[in-house]
Amino acid sequence: MFSVFNRRNNMMFLVVSLCFWGASFALISVVANYFVQKETVKIEKGIRSSLALVRSNFEAAIYMDTYLADSLSTVITIDTEFATKNWSSIASKLIRKSRFVRNVSLAPNNVISHVYPLEGNKGAIGFDLATRPEQIETVLQAKRQQSVVIAGPVELVQGGVGLIARFPIFSDYPNNRDYWGSVSVVMDYTRLEQSSGLMELEGAQVALRRLSLNGEKDVVFYGEETLFDAPDVIHQLHLPSVTWELAAKIDTASVAHIKETRRLSVLTGIVTTLLLYVLILMLYRNYTRVHQASLHDELTLLPNRRFITRMLTRLIDQNGTPRPFALLNIDLNDFKQVNDTLGHEAGDALLKHVAQVLLKAVRSTDTVARFGGDEFTVLVRNVSRQPQIERIIADIYAAMASSSVTWNDREITPSLSIGYTTYNGQKATVQQLLSEADDSMYQNKKRQKRGEKHS
């Protein structure tokens, strides 16, 4: 009956649902990738700007403190005696104005004689820079260049990491032939790094290196050396006497905002798709209910005239070898009398009873329908020979005779008139088959009135 249609419709809906979800997930992925790509471009632009700002911050901070320290070296060059006598006040003023200077030292003939602040740095007094190759090298470089040289970052003896600005002092300025010594200004590199914004940078792997001018290997002092092989961004930091390079590999996938954008895009897409699917499901179920209501009898819950007509049309019109069937037309005798004497509710009860008896009397492959009023139709599949059909009709009569329905203490035994027609591939219309079965039923009804046996 309806199960065939339901299975077909449900299977079709399942296929459509799978296609819907497949297309939806593909669309969600495309939309999510679009928004992620859009945010990625924006974030990449922000990262590039941040990297340029990091470079600018490094350069500005180092130049500022170097410029302040240069004024100290100028004072010492002009009046060495005055500078040494007033060392503490001059050096303290420099440190107060600077942002990152930790300490300052004065080294006549490259031997430290003065240091500020003295606390924590007393051990440096009397230290000969020539005894440390890594330190005397930058001192001599400053002497040769006759200008400031930036050394480092280096691990400081007193702890921490520092940049050291070496200023050469000449007593015969501006000829600069008579070397007097040097001034060393130590800047706190860790604080400098933090203030540059490098530590807060998100979405990029960064490395810094000091370029060598004498053919030696460049020194990487921050990050991985491999980042310089194929960087997405590279900046040069031009510092006094030295050049640094900043390389970055942008990795927006690690940015929390990108992850959140992807998650929200996918979640929004799934929720929207789910709501749309629920709406479609509700519409489909409503359509199914309406469709079933149009194809079944509300009282007996059997297929109705429209249903059986469609089924007959499909069986007749199908391609290939035709499948035979018999069409039974069943009329409930004296039904009007039941309605008139016992009421329409009794008539409804009788119709429902007859429907249930017919369903039990035929095979599960056969279709029982209420054709209208007190008429029923049975489609018997794969049967065309008269003996088979008469046996089925006899079973129906027997089942109906052995059953009754009680209404207000009144027992009602249904009486039927049954006619039939067969189809075995002949050229015929549905209307012709129905008319033949109807004529056969009326012939049977007349015979019953004459007292003849069922045939």
Structure in words:
The structure is a single chain. This protein has 2 domains: 295 residues, Beta-Lactamase (2-Layer Sandwich); 145 residues, Reverse transcriptase/Diguanylate cyclase domain (Alpha-Beta Plaits, 2-Layer Sandwich). The protein has a 5-stranded antiparallel beta sheet, sandwiched between helices. The chain is 50% helix and 22% strand. It is rod-shaped, with a radius of gyration of 51 Å. It has 455 residues and is an alpha+beta fold. The mean pLDDT is 86.
List the helices and strands and how they pair.
Blueprint: H1 2-78, H2 80-85, H3 87-97, E1 101-108, E2 114-116, H4 133-145, E3 149-155, E4 161-170, E5 179-188, H5 189-195, E6 204-210, E7 219-222, E8 233-239, E9 242-250, H6 256-295, H7 305-317, E10 325-332, H8 335-342, H9 344-361, E11 367-372, E12 375-381, H10 386-401, E13 405-407, E14 410-412, E15 416-423, H11 430-449
Antiparallel strand pairs: 1-2, 1-5, 3-4, 4-5, 6-7, 6-9, 8-9, 10-12, 10-15, 11-12, 13-14
Quick recap of the structure?
With about 450 residues, the protein is an alpha+beta fold. About 50% of the residues lie in helices and about 20% in strands.
